[in-house]
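Hi again,

Forgot to attach this to my earlier email, sorry! This is the prediction with zinc ion bound. I've pasted everything inline since the attachment limit keeps bouncing my files.
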Amino acid sequence: MQEVLKECLREGELAQQWRAVETAETLEAMMAAAWVLARALVLLLMSQVLEARAAEPVSWPDCKVCGKRLRSKGWVTRQWRGVIGRVEWRRRVGRCPSGCRIRQVAPLDQALGLEAYASTSMVVQEMACLLAVLMPFELGPLRVGATHERCAQCEQRVALGTGIRA
Ligand SMILES: [Zn+2]
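C-alpha cells for the complex follow:
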C-alpha cells in the first residue's frame, strides 16, 4: 500500500497535488494544499474499491415484466457526488433479452444503495438545503445553485426560510 501511494505521489494522478504541498511556502498554504491532496487521494482509493467491486461476478435479477433473467449489455460509466467529492466508476448494466421496456438495471448500484439516476448524495442535498436556509439574506443570490433546482424539498425549505425572514 505504501509503495502504491508513493508511486501515486511521484508520477500518478496525485503528483501535482503533492507538489503543491511540497512547494507551499506558508503553513496555511501547505495545509490547504494537503486538504486538496487528501480529498483527491480518498476519491482515488474509492474509485479503486468501486472498480474491484464492479469486476466481481454479477447475479442478474429477473425481468419484472416477463420474468426472464436479465442479460449484460456492457459497461457504462456512473458518477455520484458525495460529501468528499465526485466519484466515477464503470459497472455492468443489464436489460431484458426479450426487449421488455424496462430501465437498464445495474446490480452494483443497487448493492451500493444508489437509486437509479441519483447523482448526488442525500447528505449533500441536505447540507445545501441547510446552507440555503441559514445563509444571511444578503447573500440570497448565491442560494440559487444547480443542486437546489433538483431538490423539491429544498425549494420548500428555501421558501420557508425566506418566509421567516420576510
Ligand atoms: Zn422482459
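The chain is about 50% helix and 15% strand. Residues 144-150, 162-166 have pLDDT under 50 and may be disordered.

That should be everything now.

G.
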